[in-house]
Design a protein that fits this description.
Strands 2-1-3-6-4-5 form a 6-stranded mixed β-sheet. It contains 7 helices and 6 strands. It has about 210 residues and is α/β, with parallel strands linked by helices.
Length: about 210
């Protein structure tokens, strides 16, 4: 598969870049995508939720009423879960939501996500670029030239570039990452995927390993 390479001005360079069919043209596996996205979101959960149970409440342990004859449910002290302001039964406790996922499944999910972007014509390849200084105005011009300014866009660089990152930091619909940060969730969460030439070689070396 071949795609045209564009400049940051949105002009066709006249060059073509060959994409690996084993990464960008596979039959997407929706279940692998679901598992990878589920793991990504689970790993981002803090898991710090906590509710006090009966033994952790502060309050008198005096028995409020007789055991029998009251006509209602049996109640102990004021911390009883039956009372307003009492403890909670089997409340949430801090826990770790992360789980293991095989590397091959994760790789399949990323290949599937990239293949979806190709079939949706949502993948653009641009030549490697850099800015002399961090300027949001320059990045807005780049997005306008590529006609992705009004879309949620993911820019993938071959290596970290501080000026490019700082230029896009204030734009709510733009996310700039390197190939090491690329994951299924971020690819699917974007409407347009913009890859630099150097990033494609890096993605193929990682996913073909």
């Amino acid at each position: 598969m071949e795609l045209s390479v564009y400049t940051i001005k949105g002009e066709d360079t006249g060059r073509k870049i060959t994409l690996s069919d084993s990464i960008f043209a596979i039959e997407p596996n929706d279940h692998a995508i679901w598992l990878d996205v589920k793991q990504y979101r689970a790993n981002n959960r803090q898991g710090t939720h906590k509710a006090k149970e009966r033994s952790e409440m502060s309050g008198s342990t005096r028995k409020l009423g007789k055991q029998k004859g009251g006509g209602g449910a049996r109640r102990g002290d004021i911390n009883s879960p039956l009372l307003a302001g009492g403890a909670r039964v089997f409340g949430p406790r801090p826990r770790d939501y992360s789980f293991k996922l095989n590397k091959k499944v994760k790789a399949l999910a990323r290949k599937s996500a990239l293949s979806y972007k190709v079939t949706e014509n949502a993948l653009i390849v641009i030549e490697d670029f850099s800015f002399e200084a961090p300027k949001t105005k320059d990045f807005i011009s780049l997005a306008n030239n590529l006609k992705v300014a009004d879309k949620k866009s993911l820019f993938v660089l071959g290596e970290a570039n501080k000026n490019v990152y700082l230029s896009a930091r204030n734009l709510p619909k733009v996310n700039v990452i390197t190939i090491s940060e690329l994951n299924t969730y971020k690819v699917l969460d974007s409407k347009s995927l913009i890859l630099t030439e150097s990033s494609i070689a890096g993605i193929e070396s990682i996913l073909n390993a």
